[in-house]
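Task: complex structure prediction.
Instruction: return structure tokens for all chains below.
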Amino acid sequence: MNKHVSRRDFIKKTAAAAALILAGPASTVLSAGKVFAKAPAKKKTSIAPVIKADVKNIGGKEVVWLPENSTEYKKLMLPDVHLPLIAQNGGLVPITVDSKFPMKKGNYIKAFHVFNLNNPTPKIAVFNLTPENGRAYISTRIKLQQASYVQVITEYSNGKMYGNKKYVKVTVGGC
Amino acid sequence: MKIGTIMVRVPRKVKKGKIFKVMSITKHPMDTGLVKNPKTGKIIPMWIINKVDIYYDKKLITSCDYGIAISANPFLAFYLKAENKAPLEFVMYDTHHNIYKKTVMINVV
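Output:
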């Protein structure tokens, strides 16, 4: 028996082995690619485009949308809307609306209207507040159908309405 | 736990004039009326809480109108100013004409 392996033979065998090793993962990657290519195609049919329009009118009253860095925006103390950047479960998205506006008698935040135009029913909830609250703060958990803008409209006691919104990514819809 | 049980968390003692947080959670399925039962294939009918009224010292403090997009077992947190020792009452109405109530005392020192 000849135990000695020739140089030529060695190169041939290693090349073949290398080809096998390379081909193995490459083929699996290809098949995985096919699977991933199919799945989003199915999802895309159900996902509607994100609506960027704002709510302009509530109950006959006009809603004003201010740019976020303007002086009036800071003066009105429009609430901060705390939402997760990515919501893993669309059926349970925590939302906190918090404003530092002083709740004095005669000048206070009357209500928060929460909207999402991508949901089956755009109106999510209305929270009515009074000066006895002491602080304009509401925290709940809502359902979101897909990645979209959550719009919070603040109604002041003088009847004026101002809006601000935030974008949320949703991985699994919850409606 | 029975459907409609309201759990409320308030501090044991509050100083007069201070603002404190009230947290509540309600046991409720909050069916939207859009989801199908995977076993039978029939649509689960809508059953949601659509109105919440909160009274403090027999005065309406906060009220909420809910749509279908509030998650199951609705959670609600808000702030309240302590005036005097009085009950805090939660009243919830749902689309099956049930009324759920819960009263807690607020100890103002």
